Description:
- Helices cover 85% and strands 0% of the residues.
- By secondary structure, the chain is an all-alpha fold.
- The chain has a domain at 468-553: Orthogonal Bundle (Arc Repressor Mutant, subunit A).
Amino acid sequence: MSTSPEELQTQLAATTDSRERAIILVKLGMALSRIEPTEGLAYAEEAQKAARQLRDDITRAHALHAIACCHETLAQYQPALAAAQKARWLFQKRGDQIGEGTCLNAIAVIAHGMGDYPTGLSALAEAREIFTAQEDQPGLASAFNNTGMMYQELGNYPEALNAYLQALQINEGLGNEQLVGVNIGNVSNIYFYLGDNERSFQYDLRALEIARRLNDQYGIGHTLDNISSHHKTRGDYQAALDALTESLEIFRQMQAKRYESAILIKLGALHEQQQQPEAALEQYHAATTIAEAIGDANTLANAQAHIGMMHHKQGNYLLAIPVLNDAITTAEASANPRIVCETKRLIAESLAATGDHTAAFAQLQEHLVLLTELSSEQQRKSVAEAQARFDVERTEREREVLRLRNQHLEETMELRNKELTTLAMNLVQKNTFLQKLRKQTEQLAEEHPTAKLAMKALMREIAENLRGDDDWERFQQEFQHVHHDFIRRIASDHPKLTPTELKVCALLKVNLSNKEIANLLSISLRSIESHRYSIRKKMGLAGEISLAAYLAAV
């Protein structure tokens, strides 16, 4: 279970250790990144400075990731992207693949906010590969959830549903009920968009059950809001009213004023639909009061528009006109052209009903201009979404081609490695046979002095075959095909290595044993051990680091 910001602040006040303090500052930055991003940013930036002073790249990378998350919440996408990319580079530098995957997840969320869906989906594909390879199930679930979010925004609901369901399956396996509840809510939304209201309703009921079990008041309130919409669609207005009333009470207790005012408008609309105008107006006015108090212009404009519409429907045109004008002023200030457009139409109708046809015509003209602009904007958005979908599909095709190409290269490399190892072993076996033959020839020469002279030529030829460089040149030629610049890089990085030591390094690269290397190079096993010691010393390798493992990574 995650530590609360209050507990982290207590820990921060109690510690004097610089490194521990930096780590707690990072945790505070992340804990506040969604609820108090400005405060979280201050903690994360302090953590980054401390980590830089400590020369602790990993803690610094985590701090940069927290900075990116805070900027993203504040919709400051460019600094968010810069911080996330820097964090990724630091994680890569230190070989922390899970950290890199986490940064890719953050980059995708930032790209989503910027409307750059191809970049976001590409980052998520990389993240999923990393988390799968590292068997990091929580990271993989997060990547799938973000993938669903991306496809949902593109209107590709089948792909969104598939991604959300995979995230749900993973979190169910992990037993993380809180995230399961989030995933279920996402799945419910997709079924709703696909027109499967019954399945959407069942998922929302399940999400509510989980939220109640966890005593997640925020989750309960929002899920009840969704469930009320299902009841309303079914015509069960009392059940819808009960769900909204409970949701309203929860948000009031939480002092979540923004959500409270939004629920009040929905309650008003429900009362209005049931022909209860007085109750509807009461809810709309209550929402107006809250929205004004907290400075929520969008909700205020929405509530004012509903009040004006109610007066218009009741024929109270002189009451409707000033309220609708207020709604337009508020909506224009909050850049909400849809409310402005619809409200101007209502004002035009109200003015016409009062006999002021000139003013009504002017309002109607403005309404039509806005309607045309909104239609053009919707068309532009549709074209942009279609282009984004095309870009995503093209990126995915290119990624699949690249994956197949890399797979082919890996298979080719594996085959060449096997051939190289086979060649090395054949050369070892040949040298082993020649050494055995030389010993037998020497033994026969000793046992049969008369044949000694005749065998000298044979022994000389065997010795020349063992001392010759033909085998090494043949091996080196094949080695270069597989491990192109290995010997050159080793020689460049460690210029004190002798030619024989470079040969030993190459043979260790293909996993030959000391004995096999000794046979291939026609030197003693003790000499190979001495060469290995010298190589380690010249490379400055610590005792716990395997020479073979180090060379394998080069």
